[in-house]
Every structure is written in structure tokens, then in C-alpha cells.
Amino acid sequence: MVAAQKPITGSAISERLPCWRAVLLAKLIAPTQPPRKVWKHTPRGWDSRARGGKYPKAKEAMLAYTNISECPCCLVQASVKKHARLNCISHLLTMIPYQDLTPDTVELPEREETDYQRPSTDAYHFVPLIYGSKYKDN
Asked: In sequence order, what are the beta bridge partners of 71?
């Protein structure tokens, strides 16, 4: 950053740019504000910002050549990462052929009564209970 330039603040960014570009620019500029974070910037980062208008064109050209019927490219709208991941999983599951494999119901025979008594568990070694308790409902 040149010393004579006035730093761009968050409000000035959001007034002039679409939301996603404002966020990217804020991330790029934010480390220059406190002097201790200037080391995070590289000349490549500033160059990529200067060439930023070429990236969408390159993406469109790439999609035009690689998006074919045998292997279609699917773009993910990822404003909310959790939703994007769930949408990807849902989409992938719809691509897999599915047939209902629910098994038939099985009738269990009645259990025999025996005089078996379970021995004491004092002699056994157990993993320590850090989470939960030894009873299921607690």
C-alpha cells in the first residue's frame, strides 16, 4: 500500500461494490490497516487483485470447454457453507441409482428362560467414562 493512499473502510467498500466483492476486498485490505499484519500481503496478492477482472472471463471460458454432456460441471452457490455442503451431498445422492432395499419384517421367536446369572463386572477393565454415564438415559 502506498503511504499517500487513504485506507478504504468497510462502509466505503459496501457502498460501491456488490456484496461478495466487498467481502473479498475487505479481506485483502484488512491486514494492511494494523501495521503488525502487513506481512500477510505478497506482491502476488496485489497482482491478482489488479487482474481480478480477468478471472470471471477465464472461469467462463473454462466452463465452456469442460462442461460436456458426459461430464457436466455443477456450480455450487456457497454463500452459506453449511447449506452448500448439504446441497452437494443431496445432489450427489440424487445421481446414484436407488432402489428400495428395505428388508422384510422378521418375527423373532420367544426367548427361552434360563437360570443364568451374570457375574460381577468388578474384574473387567473398562474405558473411563468422561462423557455420559454408564446408564443410557443419563
From this structure: 68
- Rounded to whole angstroms, the Cα distance separating 134 from 138 reads 8
pLDDT at 129: 78
The confidence band for 19, taking pLDDT boundaries of 50, 70 and 90, is: low
Q: Domain map of the chain by residue range? A: 10-95
Q: What is the pTM of this model?
A: 0.41
**Residue at grid coordinates 457436466:** 72
CA-CA distances (angstroms) from residue 111 to 87, 105, 106, 107, 114?
Answer: 46, 18, 15, 12, 9
The pLDDT of 60-76, averaged and rounded, is 87
DSSP output for 17-73: S-HHHHHHHHHHHGGGSSGGGGGG--HHHHHHHHTTTHHHHHHHHHHHHH-BTTB--
